[in-house]
Amino acid sequence: MRWAAALILMLAMHGPRVAPAFRPALGQLARSPILVYLPSWVPPLHAHVYAVALTFASGYSAALSTCRQAYGSCVLLSVSAENAASASNWFTVSPHTRMLTIRPGVVGYRITMVGAAVHVRLEWYEHGDAFSLACATARAICTDAQYVHVARSMIPIR
Questions:
Q1: Residues 70, 120: Cα–Cα separation, whole Å
Q2: pTM of the model
Q3: Fewest beta carbons less than 10 Å away: which of 64, 78, 143, 155?
Q4: Which residue range is the domain that position 149 belongs to?
């Protein structure tokens, strides 16, 4: 397993560049059952962040968090992907949903969930997987343009 982590790190260092903030999570993502995509660009987050990653039976999740090893309210940016066959009914379109074109032929859905707090994410299907991107800076929720920019910058790392 060490060779896989070393290979991912080598590809990240010498191939297309993963956003530097995500590099500490590459070793953990080596166990992903699907091809890992991470952004090469992230918006200015205006905070010190830690890379946190999880893998599970059908996918992975990687996040930039202001808390060491923590998900939840500490997360400023997260990327999750799951095999599309496992992700049936992964998201639903509602009055709070807006379509955004990520690239020709790939449409994402910006979903706003309103409750005790506003939670926004961009979800789309590509490469046979279902992707979800949540983005907020220390100052505000990311704009539509920032969501699309991050989604367009996703590159394979394994």
A1: 19
A2: 0.82
A3: 143
A4: 2-156
